[in-house]
Known about the structure:
Elements: H1 2-16, E1 23-25, E2 46-47, E3 57-61, E4 65-68, E5 79-87, E6 94-100, E7 107-112, E8 119-125, E9 133-138, E10 144-151, E11 155-160, E12 163-169, E13 179-182, E14 184-185, E15 188-189, E16 192-201, H2 207-217, H3 220-229, E17 234-236, E18 241-249, E19 255-268, E20 271-274, E21 290-295, E22 299-303
Antiparallel strand pairs: 1-16, 2-3, 3-16, 4-13, 5-10, 5-16, 6-7, 6-13, 7-8, 8-9, 10-11, 11-12, 14-15, 17-18, 18-19, 19-20, 19-21, 19-22
Amino acid sequence: MKKILLALLFVSFLNVTAQNPIQEFNFNGTLNNTDNTTSFIGTDNYVSDRSGQIRGAQRLTNKAMEAVIDNLPQGNSDRTVSVWVKFNDIAKANYIWGYGTAYNAQYCGLLQQGTHNATSNLSLAGWGASNDVILTTSLSKDVWYNYTITFDGKDSKIYRNGQLLTVADGISRDTKGNIFRLGEINTTIGINADIDDLKIYNVAMTEEQVVLLYDESKPLIAAASENLSNVKTAKSTAAGKIKVAATTNISSGISTTAIQSKNIEVFSKGEKVVGSNATTINDLPEGTYLLKITNAPFKKITSK
């Protein structure tokens, strides 16, 4: 019985643990994959990534890049493709990535349609209307998004920032091709965006694995905001400061409250947007920021 339970726990652990990609491109000052076995071809244009790392992402402005990748998932086989994208223009369509041929069901690619409002059609294209998965999503420019698609031979799923957006079943794929393109659908170029951390898998990741993948790669400011929102003992005070109070009861009936102030400074494009004489975190629009936290001296308040 114990052996069965251990086996089940082991299988459960494997199901939750993120898989290893068959191809990974982090664009940290190079167009090569992390194994240095293949590379994207095109004129590089390195920019800061979602965490502010200089030369940590690739900017594509009305140009495309392509790489020959011999082990791309073919036919109706399982796959997962994950990528971080920041759209610098949403008025026109952004062809994020794709590979395959321009024939019925033989293509696999992701594109975000152009828009002049706050919503846009997102499409997992298979070439042919019956082979496409299309949904409407909210969309903003200058915001980093993590897009992940999975296909298990039957169900096509699209995730954004770890959240499942849609599931389409019954779509059969017959993907054929080993040229992976960024900023291009078939031979049509169209993109104005920053691209980072492209990962390709030959398995269909589970929802838990997709969430884990997003959580491990989301920028610091997003993680900090989520953690701060979950701390019920913290309360917002002046702009850019948070105070957490811990009370210790003393036998004399006197209680001492130690208040630790955290100075939080948030920077965007080299300028401070949260801190002294600045707004609060809750007022910030969606986006990618640099976060600096320092401790202020303890203050003790004694009362009976």
